[in-house]
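Hi R.,

Here's the chain you asked about this morning:
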Amino acid sequence: MDDMPGIGRKSAERILAETGVEMEHFQNESRFSSWAGLVPECKESAGKKMSTRVRKGNKYLKATLVECARAGIRNRQSYLYSRYQRIAARRGGKRALIAVAHTMLIAIYHILKEKVPYHDLGADYYSVINQEKIINRNIRTLEKLGVNVMIQPK
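And here is the predicted structure, written out as tokens:
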């Protein structure tokens, strides 16, 4: 678990002290994140989305994970940094930090349940997976500016 950006030995020990190493008593990762209090909450009425707070949960685990998320986004070559940047642009820094902590918690669940090491997806994960969307969006932008574009793949 300490291979994950932002999680050191002491943080890993604190996380394991709160969660334990057996994940069988949690049915899935959403139940685990709900227990920790880092699950995204949706409050909508009549088609209007209202602001919400972070849920109550294990306050020690939540504080440790937010601290680890803050340290994890400092590594600019990691998936966590790119995830933070994408969400912070739309929703703001604090919400993005909670979302990164939630992502880390889901990864920890799978690490402990399947007993596999952490594998970072990389900072270019979103640009590789959405390559066609990025190309089409840039073509539309150039055409709006009055430039004819011809696509020639390498």
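One quick note: Residues 93-114 form the longest helix (22 residues).

Cheers,
M.
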